[in-house]
Amino acid sequence: MLSTEETHEIDLEIKKFPYKQSACLEALAIVQHHRGYVSNEALKAVAQYLEMSETELDGIGTFYNLIYRKPVGENVIRICDSVSCWILGYEKIKAKIKNELGIDLGQTTPDNRFTLLPTQCLGTCDHAPALMIGDDLHRDLDENNVVQILKSYQEKRVVKDTIDG
């Protein structure tokens, strides 16, 4: 079932399109924003709300790598595995992240802070290798600066925990 807030936000998006089904990607993003990912139950609710089949909506949701159909960590690391990044050090960066966080591609840290996912081109080939953490793009990576980047996100959590606690 969709929350009142979710349906309100989805309705605002529907108004932007000639057919409510056209707002399906935005609707999935809204649900994900509120819940962290799009569960099967949420997908079904959105499909019903937009008068679409679940299969059709799932096909759209799974096509886009920014819609998460499984739970993810607080910080989703999307490491670019395009040709430019591969040539300029993707394997070393991936290995360093795996070593620092103790996870492989598709996994989430036990504390639920990080999920590591591969992604196609981030559009910054002239500054490869690159990755994104949430909405933050990090370019010109090497084994040293990627460790500092990870630590900065770990520190953000510590500060947030201190403030909340």
Question: What is the gist of this entry?
Answer:
With 165 residues, this protein is α+β, with helices and mostly antiparallel strands.
Give the total of domains. 2
**Which of globular, elongated, flat, extended, rod-shaped describes the shape?**
elongated
Could you give the distance between the termini? 31 Å
| DSSP helix fraction | 40-55%
Oligomer: single chain
Radius of gyration: 18 Å
Q: Give the rounded overall mean pLDDT.
A: 93
Q: How many separate helices?
A: 7
Report strand order across the widest sheet: 2-1-3-4
What's the number of extended β-strand segments?
A: 4
H-E string:
HHHHEHHEEEH
Beta fraction of the residues?
5-15%
Query: What structural class do helix, strand and pairing data support?
Result: alpha+beta
The CATH topology annotation of the largest domain reads as Glutaredoxin
The main sheet comes to: 4 strands, mixed
